[in-house]
């Protein structure tokens, strides 16, 4: 969905490096989410946010942190990347009062 | 525990034939169910949802899904498959433990391959 953008689209980094993945949306949605996708495991929730002052851990938050800089921006950080964080990362948004989520194109992260 | 199961890793169907992608769920309370499609190198796209009402839900691209409460299933269907339907399909259920959080629990995905 072009209204949800993610940068970078691809990133290769080394173990121990700090990495930030960024998500921006023009949909005006309050709720934003970060997922990771691994083959055979589907999507798993890392963090979610309902507004700028609200941050919540998902099922696999260890090793990650987030920042909601504005309603439209939600960043995911890996403070010290490790190889098992190699995955496809998706940002999603959802408007309050509705249930479906709208996904960005994804960031493919490789940690060597 | 709440969960979604997609029992088939891959479904193969010939173009023009009907297709079914299976999904079963386990959730406390009323189920809110979703189907998403992921084309190569793209994010997930919303196809359809069941919240309440008719058990047969119609969505994008000619897809529909049938909610069956007694079988706790929400199978995705299309009467006539197209080669362009080839993609990865995810079933999801709202996490009802989280209140009004809209958190989704995803299945592991089913790869649909439509042969010409």
For this entry, give a set of tags.
heterodimer; A: 112 residues; mainly beta; four-stranded antiparallel β-sheet; 0% helix; B: 116 residues; six-stranded mixed β-sheet; 50% strand; globular
Describe how the helices and strands are arranged:
The complex is a heterodimer of chains A (112) and B (116).
Chain A lengths: L3 E4 L2 E4 L5 E7 L5 E8 L3 E10 L2 E4 L7 E6 L2 E6 L8 E8 L7 E2 L3 E5 L1
Parallel strand pairs in A: 2-11
Antiparallel strand pairs in A: 1-3, 3-8, 4-5, 4-9, 5-6, 7-8, 9-10, 9-11
Chain B lengths: L2 E3 L4 E5 L4 E3 L2 E3 L6 E6 L5 E7 L5 E3 L5 E5 L4 E6 L8 E8 L9 E3 L3 E6 L1
Parallel strand pairs in B: 2-12
Antiparallel strand pairs in B: 1-4, 3-9, 5-6, 5-10, 7-8, 8-9, 10-11, 10-12
Q: How many DSSP E strands of chain A?
A: 11
How many helices of chain B? The count is 0
Helix tally of chain A equals 0
Helix and strand succession of chain B?
Answer: EEEEEEEEEEEE
Which chains make the largest contact? Answer: A-B, 26 and 22 residues
Helix % of chain A is: under 10%
Question: If you compute it from the alpha carbons, what radius of gyration of chain B comes out, rounded to the nearest whole angstrom?
Answer: 14 Å
N-to-C span of chain B: 41 Å
Query: How many strands, what sense, and barrel or not for the largest sheet of chain B?
Result: 6 strands, mixed
Largest sheet of chain A: 7 strands, mixed
| H/E element order of chain A | EEEEEEEEEEE
The helix fraction of chain B, in percent, is: under 10%
Shape of chain A: globular
Strand fraction of chain A: over 45%
Instruction: Please give the oligomerization state of what you see.
Output: heterodimer
Runs of chain A in which pLDDT lies below 50 for 5 or more consecutive residues are none
Q: How many E strands of chain B? A: 12
Average predicted confidence as pLDDT of chain B? 92
Bin the strand percentage of chain B: over 45%
């Amino acid at each position: 969905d072009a209204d949800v953008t993610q940068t970078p689209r691809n990133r290769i980094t080394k173990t121990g490096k700090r990495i930030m993945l960024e998500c921006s949306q023009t949909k005006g949605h309050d709720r934003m989410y970060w997922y990771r996708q691994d083959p055979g495991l589907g999507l798993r929730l890392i963090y979610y946010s309902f507004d700028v002052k609200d941050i919540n851990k998902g099922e696999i938050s260890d090793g990650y942190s987030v920042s909601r800089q504005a309603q439209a921006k939600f960043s995911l950080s890996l403070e010290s990347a490790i190889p098992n964080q190699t995955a496809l990362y998706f940002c999603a948004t959802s408007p309050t009062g509705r249930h479906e989520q709208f996904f960005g194109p994804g960031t493919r992260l490789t940690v060597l | 525990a709440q969960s979604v199961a997609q029992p088939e890793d891959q479904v193969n169907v010939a173009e023009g034939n009907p297709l079914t992608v299976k999904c079963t769920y386990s959730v406390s309370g009323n189920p809110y169910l979703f189907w998403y499609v992921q084309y190569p190198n793209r994010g997930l796209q919303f196809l359809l949802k069941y919240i309440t009402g008719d058990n047969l839900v119609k969505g994008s691209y000619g897809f529909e899904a049938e909610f069956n409460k007694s079988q706790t299933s929400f199978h995705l269907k299309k009467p006539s498959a197209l080669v362009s339907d080839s993609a990865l399909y995810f079933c999801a259920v709202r996490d009802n433990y989280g209140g009004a959080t809209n958190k989704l629990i995803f299945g592991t995905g089913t790869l649909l391959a439509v042969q010409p």
